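Hey, quick one: can you model this chain's 3D structure?
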Amino acid sequence: MRTRTRILILCGVAGISVMIACAATKQWQYNSPNNIMQVYADGKGGCAVATTDTNNLVTVVWLDKKGKVLYESPLMSAPMIGLIQSCSANQLTYTIFFGYPMIVQVSKKGEETPVVSIGGITYGTPLAPTLNNKLDDKKGFFIINVNTNTTRKTLVRYSFK
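Sure thing. Here's the predicted structure for all 161 residues.
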């Protein structure tokens, strides 16, 4: 009887250890003052976020792997489409709308370089009526928590460990 009890206790401890080892761990969070409409992971724990306010003005915010703001775009009016074209740990590209759409490339230092075509319009990946989200990378994932009392949205980064 003692052997059976010990085996059951060891199995229970092993099971709890496995559950703890597989649990996601919260790393950081970003409290957006606006509605989060697009999230694009950079592959290294950071991401770019497109938000819209109550006047439908849009901004793009680039966050590093610790949740620190690297860059914030000016407010712009934009249709509800995927603004963020790509995001890595070293650069961000997004579509900006000031009259005509054009691509803006942002360096890690926050320096903007607009990509313009003389006498034409520059489009990034095909503009589509859907949002292109990338919520995970090899080390973790992002979720958006919505406070149902205030409808405030918070972006949260979790690691897989």
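One thing worth noting: Residues 2-21 form the longest helix (20 residues).
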